[in-house]
Amino acid sequence: MYLVAPDSFKGTFTAPQVAAAIGRGLGRAGVGHDPCPVADGGEGTMDVLVAARGGERVSATAHDPLGREIQAAFALLAGGDAIVETASASGLGLVMAAERDPERASTRGTGELIAAAIAAGARTVLVAVGGSATTDGGAGAIAAIEAAGGLRDARLEVLCDVRAPFEAAASVFGPQKGADPAAVKRLEARLHELAERLPRDPRGVPMTGAAGGLSGGLWAAFGAELRPGAATILDAVEFDRRLEAADGVITGEGALDAQSLGGKLVGEIAARCRAAGRPLHVIAGTVALEAAGAERLGIRSLRAASTLPEIESAAEDLARTAT
To answer: Which of 10, 45, 257, 274 has its CA 20 to 30 A from that of 59?
Structure first.
């Protein structure tokens, strides 16, 4: 029996869709599975936590990265916490490729969702920071939260999908958000200037560079706790307990590359599989990880599949050939 624990194939399939496709493929081979869709602090984190902990989605008015008014969502979780996904209001998926502008893009909308969650009664707000279109160091979110009266008695926990520090946010992630080399230099200068004005300096602190420095801005301005998103989500879905009952694990993500080694979901799952002595198999939309990287993670087998039928076939093949 396999524990099936994929992330979303970002911009293509949700984690539950991928898990279902893998399950169908295993079923064709007569192999059982435990479906366990997961996330690393990016898109899909809210749905995974609502499924694991119980809760409800709440619609709120916010602004997208370019300042346009939209309807976005956060979730109130059972027990009184809330979860906000940065991608819901400040995500790269909200901006067409031709209009990407990392120097203009703001996290204001994420701050508005955090403020809305606090107004709805949340005392702890989890902020999943993956998938942003922004590199503003959290300046927009900080301003929106302060305009709404601050955190009041609430606290923030930021679920980070990368370990990069604040000052690296522009050079490491800016190009994928549309920044050319000149824009990267300007963004770097802006981040350094902001760091000097914040109540404490986020530079050099691991995980402060997530979402273009949003995590660092919230850490510096409001004392937010920074937590590794992948580990937090795996704990929430009781991954370790379910792993003990499985013969192996199948995970997946849209792109398996060098970033998978640095705080991403596959790396965290790989570490837990090694500790438990369970084989790990990966199905990914694209594979750009060198053999040495796959060996370092301890991946038993690796297959590329970019459509749901291909994912089904890859899972069936895996079940019939894995040893």
So the answer is: 10
Question: Which of 42, 35, 47, 46 has its CA nearest to residue 6?
Answer: 35
Residues in CB range of 292: below 8 A, 6 or more apart: none
Q: What's the predicted TM-score (pTM) here? A: 0.88
Instruction: Copy the structure tokens of residue 255.
Output: 């792109």
Would residue 235 count as lying in a domain? no
Residue 236 is assigned to a structural domain of this protein: no
pLDDT digits (tens, 9 = 90+) for 202-226: 999 999 999 999 999 999 999 999 9
**DSSP states along 271-302:** HHHHHHT--EEEEEEEE---HHHHHHHTEEEE
For the chain, how many structural domains are there in total?
A: 2
DSSP state of 132: B
Nearest to 89 by CA among 105, 100, 77, 101: 105
Distance CA 289, CA 239 (A): 25
- For residue 318, which of 29, 5, 1, 4 has the smallest C-alpha distance? 29
For residue 266, report the phi and psi dihedrals to the nearest 5 degrees: -60, -40
Contact 191, 204 (CB under 8 A): no
